[in-house]
Amino acid sequence: MFIITHRGFFFWLTGLILVAAIGAIVFWGLPLGIDFTGGSLMQVKYSNEVPPLSTIEKQVSVVPLGAVFVRSSGGNAVSIRTRTMTPAEHEAVFASISSSVSTDSTSLPQTTELSYTSVGPALGNQFAHKALWALFAVILVIMLYIAFAFRKVSRPVPSWGYGLIVVAMLAIDLIVPAGFYAMLCHYTDMQVDSLFVVALLALLGYCVNDVIVIFDRIREHLAKNEKTGLKESFEETIGKSINETMIRSINTSLTVVFALVALIFLGAPATREFAIVMLVGVVAGTFSSICRSAPLLIPIANWFAKK
Amino acid sequence: MNRFRVFAIFAIVVGFFLAYFVWSTETNPESQYRFKLGLDLAGGTELVYKADMSQTPSGEQNDALSALQSVIERRVNLFGVAEPLVQTEQASSLSGTTEDRLIVDLPGVTDIKAAVAALGQTPTLDFRLATSTTIGTTTAVTYAATGLTGRYLSSAALQFGSGATAGLAAPQVILNFNSDGAKLFEKITSENVGQTLAIFLDGQPISTPTIQEAIPGGQATITGRFTASEARDLVRNLNFGALPVPIVLESSSAIGPTLGAAAVTAGVTAGLIGFIIIALFMVAWYRLPGVIAIVALAEYVVFMFSVMKVIPITLTASGIAGLIISVGMAVDANVLIFERTKEELREGKSPREAVHIGFSRAWTAIRDGHLTMLISGGILFWLGTSIVQGFALVFVLGVLASFISAVSLSRVFLLAIVPDLPPEEGKEHRAWKFLLSSGFHKN
């Protein structure tokens, strides 16, 4: 009952986290990577010393490409981001950075291209649109399914109320890791790529399941109370349901957290940023389903009682 | 021996068989069932082309796309790549226009320029009927697609015929159609005698002969304005296959092999360590059911691996993400059941009864959870682009497998082990209660 009694505190805490997350997204922004905007990204490794980034930038600008962004990407590697390059331009850029840095140094930089990605502007834009629509479609269908699955318990909260809360929860569950990612992007050089969207989608699946488990318990208690004629306040039913499912929620998220932590520290760099987003999302999502989703039913129930 | 024990032994034997399959196919470099690693993990080049279907009648676009695929496949094989993959994708945007794409994966190839050049030499060939419309004094010629394209070409040959200029043999390119193409060519020529049937190469009319009579036999001649060496190149490129529709390079990416190899080792280590930590936690907290959950989970993992190897599903970074989340779901279904079983034990049910009821009580939550995830996965697969689809496919498979593993495997194992004790309390009763309870304390 702790959470139910202090639900005001948890609502405020949620509000605070949400404001922080939205603030991070609004002020720092989510820098969209080439998957969304189109463009070319090449990662080059130097086997000897990496020249200053400004030098590399100058070398790249030999090819007329407009704005060029050169960043260190850890170790002896740098990443170079430009507008979408043609194969010929790509070759010219690589040749230019492999040429001698200054006239007095005799040794040529030893460069190897680790990766090169080029996305046409049309394709990039399309990806962003499709990803967003997929997100909306999933959320909508989940709402409908939950309204259907809870159709037998329509008191004191109508079944679509459950669906609505799940959707609100999902929105928060996605905004919090997105805000965290905005902060990461601000302090490091990370960008929003398609794996980030995949991470959000995976979180969506995880969080829905989490909320459903608690709602399922409420549904069960409500049905049982009706059968046995037990008079119990809605708050008590919800408090009981949260307590009974709490260990399960924590244990499940712990196992996923274990897998993600292993992926962060031991996994490939390609999946690291993705795993970090997931980790934040899973922790936030577990908190959200325990402390927020079910308690939120109470004000809604009260509102319906007044009507 | 009760039927649960028979099932349990059967499941374990199948599990060992699958584990052996996964192990043996992975250690044998010759096996066709090794994991197919995506380019983001194994290194290689991916080229995405857009197919321009504006000249193709809507009813034939699918055929044209598959013809395009086979021509590019032939080209790629020429390039000498170990396991190339040529896929087509029909992406429909929200505005209703569809876009046809051709995705070419070249594992191990990191030289984008060479790859693009090799594929780019593939010519586009099609035949169009000319209609001249005269408005006032100007005559405009419009060309209508006939459906006869490079996909019906079986071979091309070079020939020097008597040209208009006396004494100079003009190079001619002989096109031989396959049987379908020959029929189509005969039909077109017989129906349009007197009209101009233009031959378009890479979108340009290179020859505009007038049809004198129906041409059976499936042979056409291009008497274009080209030099001998141009004609020779054209014949060679046509013989490697002519494209039915023009293609434009839309995006490309190359991942170096060093990045890929490190990614695989790291992924395997992370997966293994993650699994061991989860196993330790599950056994410590859930005791006997924890052990059973780990066995069921191990079966789940070897099953998923086997399915991914047999179908085969290409393993990418996003696929690994789907796998991890679905493992989480599989654990969750088990946890739900065990928590329920424990509650029933507390209410004084006999161990076996508690297991039975625990499963039936957990069922609605597992059903609703898995169904919503299946629906989400389905939508993502349907709407998503390839990287999202890679995630969705593994996720949907994983959710299905998790469903089976939790609802049948864990249940069968538990019921096979937990004995049917008489309801009165005894030493044995307490021992089973301890084994089926959970937490780090004794209760």
UniProtKB/TrEMBL annotation, chain B:
Domain (Protein translocase subunit SecDF P1): residue spans on this chain: 69-130
Locations listed in the record: Cell membrane
GO biological process, one term: protein targeting
Keyword field: Cell membrane, Membrane, Protein transport, Translocation, Transmembrane, Transmembrane helix, Transport
InterPro entries in UniProt: SecD (IPR005791), SecD/SecF_arch_bac (IPR022813), SecD/SecF_CS (IPR022646), SecD_1st (IPR048631), SecD_SecF_C (IPR048634), SecD_SecF_C_bact (IPR055344), SecDF_P1_head (IPR054384)
Membrane topology term: Multi-pass membrane protein
Positions of the Protein export membrane protein SecD/SecF C-terminal domain: 250-415
Pfam families cross-referenced by the UniProt entry: Sec_GG, SecD_1st, SecD_SecF_C, SecDF_P1_head
Domain spans labelled SecDF P1 head subdomain: 141-245
A GO term from the CC aspect: plasma membrane
GO terms, molecular function: protein-transporting ATPase activity
Residues spanning the membrane: 259-284, 291-311, 317-338
Tagged with keyword Transport: yes
Function: Part of the Sec protein translocase complex. Interacts with the SecYEG preprotein conducting channel. SecDF uses the proton motive force (PMF) to complete protein translocation after the ATP-dependent function of SecA.
The protein's assembly and partners: Forms a complex with SecF. Part of the essential Sec protein translocation apparatus which comprises SecA, SecYEG and auxiliary proteins SecDF. Other proteins may also be involved.
NCBIfam families on file: 2A0604s01, secD
Family assignment from sequence similarity: Belongs to the SecD/SecF family. SecD subfamily.
Protein name in UniProt: Protein translocase subunit SecD
The species this protein was found in: Candidatus Kaiserbacteria bacterium RIFOXYD1_FULL_47_14
Gene that produces this protein: secD
